[in-house]
Amino acid sequence: MDSQVSFKKNGQINIVLHERENIIIENDAHVKDEGKDPFYRIDQEFSSFIGMNRLKETIKEIYANIEINQKREQVGLKTQNQVLHMLFKGNPGTGKTTIARKLAKAFYEMNVISKGHFIEAERADLVGEYIGHTAQKTRELVEKAMGGVLFIDEAYSLARGGEKDFGKEAIDTLVKHMEDHHSEFILILAGYPAEMDHFLSLNPGLASRFPIVLDFDDYSVEQLMEIAKQMMHEREYLLTKEAEWKLRDYLIKQKQDYYLRNFSNARFVRNTIEKSVRKHAVRLLKKNKYTTEELMLITKSDLTLD
Length: 306
Known about the structure:
single chain
């Protein structure tokens, strides 16, 4: 938009905005084909994820900002790149790694990143054995991540050794590259909530560099049961009613135990299903014959909970 700036004697600034032609821009044809819902494809891509409403809203906000920036550019308005470095906080099995992988693909399709590859790293991949080695390792890892997503799980471990630990050097190097290449790659730091909060408190300037912070809540019993049925469906198995009741009762007891810290949410469900499938196979193999229904049904006796 053209503007004229004039200065008054008292130091005040007058800005006169000239009228711009009001251009109507329509959305792309594919949006019309999808019932005029601009978020149709995002809903489809993330429909298999149980819960995670805040995450889904955040993805829609990012996508909307990209699209509207393009429209602004078409009419000559200012645009700016989004900084999408993220912090994921959540207990085991709440989907942090799975979502990070999915985001790499989604952001590539949105043209946010140029390559869309996903690099998963931990402390050992960044921290070296002598002065200067850590900066080199971290720099090389960031260079590999250019155009994609760099995901560092249990990121709080970088600060566990205190001031003299080489982990601090890794953090400092990451911060520099986040600033220098903020639109060329996306850094996602992940970890357990309490540990991540402590990690950020040790490095006050770090939190402000992550504009997106997502809390991955523990799943409810109903959500875990839905995840179990979804996993069964994908494998073409079914739980009998008795097996469902057994699994639900166990999950309720786990959720009620306030002091339990080792429950791994969806990971526990997945491991339980895989063990049950193996037990089911052993049980059937001991029989001379079995029906199609028996090949699919996981019974109460097949369900191993420990």
